[in-house]
Specification:
Elements (H helix, E strand, L loop, with lengths): L1 H19 L9 E3 L8 E2 L4 E2 L3 H6 L3 E2 L3 E7 L5 E3 L2 H6 L10 E3 L10 E7 L4 E6 L6 H4 L3 E7 L41 H22 L1
Bound molecules: 2-acetamido-2-deoxy-beta-D-glucopyranose (8 copies).
């Protein structure tokens, strides 16, 4: 029994080590929108600072990546999953569940902004600036990206609903003597598994004795 349990412990330790040393094939990326040009509208030339569609076509986007908008308060950042909203260059009629405004309504011009947008939904994501009553959008401040699965959403962006409330452990329980089956070879995280194996073994013996 002791030898068997020790061997079992060693196998569990090996499995844990193997799982911990697995590294993902690629990493999450941050994409600076427009590259060095940033996210700007040139009011003098009445055109976007760069061709954002060309920029988007040069990138590969995956779930969990971020778009980094280096901009100022002259532009806005609107994200939508709704093609109609995108094509209208306005989110006045948009639904809350498919369109997000990351900034806007600022009455000060030229205020520097860095806006970080996580990509959390696969497929078509649309971005535009609705400033100047849609003229910025009509004149190039709009682009579409396709978001691929990649590594999938990281836990930080994939938040499940909060777990049900659990009563905190009784503070008295810390002072009670630990309830343990005496044994010497088990240690660390394998203890619970080894103990339950031992329990199963005893149950099996009891059943056998009863049957005899
Ligand atoms: C990407 O941007 C996010 C949000 O600012 C940040 O938490 C993350 O560390 C950045 N990742 C890389 C690889 O720069
Ligand atoms: C807009 O374009 C003009 C002409 O090319 C240039 O002189 C000016 O610096 C640009 N403005 C901005 C804010 O990029
Ligand atoms: C910029 O272009 C729009 C058309 O998209 C036009 O309505 C507007 O008058 C132009 N503005 C300037 C300052 O040229
Ligand atoms: C931007 O680039 C795309 C190709 O990536 C092209 O179809 C489009 O006409 C360009 N827009 C402007 C305003 O030059
Ligand atoms: C921001 O908008 C204001 C007001 O239209 C203009 O004077 C200023 O040049 C703009 N700044 C940039 C960087 O485009
Ligand atoms: C897109 O938004 C419009 C309102 O702007 C709405 O009428 C339409 O149903 C939406 N489309 C989808 C596919 O949700
Ligand atoms: C928004 O809600 C409508 C119905 O309320 C639904 O048809 C649509 O798929 C939702 N869109 C998103 C992006 O969840
Ligand atoms: C359990 O591991 C600790 C170090 O993590 C060690 O000090 C202790 O002697 C080990 N106990 C047994 C029974 O192997």
């Amino acid at each position: 029994m002791a030898v068997e349990t020790a061997a079992f412990t060693a196998v569990v330790a090996l499995l844990i080590t193997a799982a911990a040393s697995q590294t993902p094939p690629t990493a999450y990326s941050n994409h600076t929108v427009g590259g060095p040009a940033g996210w700007f509208f040139n009011a003098t030339k009445n055109i976007s600072a760069t061709n954002y569609s060309s920029w988007a076509a040069s990138q590969t986007f995956n779930l969990g990546d971020f778009l980094i908008f280096r901009t100022n308060s002259n532009q806005t950042v609107i994200q939508t999953y709704n093609l109609t909203t995108f094509q209208s260059c306005s989110f006045d009629d948009a639904s809350d569940n498919d369109t997000v405004q990351y900034n806007g309504g600022d009455t000060d011009f030229n205020k520097p902004l860095i806006i970080q947008v996580p990509l959390t939904i696969k497929g078509s994501n649309y971005f535009f600036s609705d400033a100047n009553d849609g003229v910025q959008c009509q004149e190039g401040m709009a682009f579409e990206i396709q978001v691929n699965t990649g590594l999938g959403l990281p836990p930080s962006l994939n938040q499940p609903p909060p777990p049900p409330y659990a009563t905190p452990p009784d503070s008295n329980s810390a002072q009670m003597p630990p309830l343990m089956i005496p044994q010497t070879k088990d240690n660390g995280s394998s203890k619970t598994i080894a103990n339950s194996r031992r329990e199963l073994f005893f149950i099996a013996v009891m059943v056998l004795l009863l049957l005899c």
